[in-house]
Amino acid sequence: MPPQSESLRGIGFLVSALVLFSVMDVLIKLLSADYGTFQIVFFRSALALLPIGVLVMRSGGLMAIRTARPGGHVLRSLIGTAALLCFFYSYKYMPLADVYAIHFAGPLFLTALSGPMLGEPVGWRRWSAVGVGFIGVVVMIQPGAGVFSPIALIPLVGAVFYAFAMIFVRKLSRTETNAAIVFYFTLTGLGVGFIGMLPDWKTPDLAGLALLVSVGLLGGCAQILMTQAFRSAPAATLAPFEYTAMIWAVLFGYLVFADLPTAPIVTGALIVSASGLYILHRETRRPPRPVTDATAKATMP
Known about the structure:
Layout lengths: L2 H29 L5 H22 L11 H24 L2 H8 L2 H13 L5 H18 L11 H20 L5 H20 L8 H27 L2 H8 L2 H13 L5 H21 L9 H6 L3
Main location: membrane
Membrane topology: Multi-pass membrane protein
Subcellular location: Membrane
């Protein structure tokens, strides 16, 4: 297939994944009124193992998940699960669009951490973009303002966990398959969710069970589509389309919850998005790294 057609396929996979993730997040926000965050993470992970199991089988079966670095998988998976818990918990108290906007700070933290943790050079232009991006974060969370809510710090902490998780994904990807990274992450989420939900377990009714099952299946299918997207097209081609997630968050948030993002959220999100796109532009102007952003994105939490 011609490269242009492959890129279009990759964009289609990515947008489809983002739509499924957004629908999943709507269901999580609905469920959070009655069920604890750990219980939601448990079902999200348990049911996601079904489509991810298909990915593992198509990638070579048990050979695809063999690893000589179990400790690395555990650390990456625990940090990624912590990010999930932060974001899922935030959905209960914040509009979807607000959480998404703050989540966009993750790549800024990733850029800042890639120097000390991966030894990757980060020039003054990228550092400047990171600084501008953090101004956008401050605009969104409005510290010291009368409307500031401490809950806004929870997705910000989630964005930090996300960045650390992606750092470890880059390290693992030097020797591990995407299937292995996604499988052990999902398995860890299953274990953490099971332990955490025991004190507050609530037996779901039929409607709740249907939503919980849907969350897991949607998350697993979206993760596979995301992986396929970054196999089909370069990260530089796909990255700008990741910001379309904000469109779905605003649309679904308004249709289902009558939520609209505030002016500070919109302003801050635009600043953060512009900073992220500039960092992406600088990334494309230097020689490729042995481990690409595509690998990291394909195994996102």
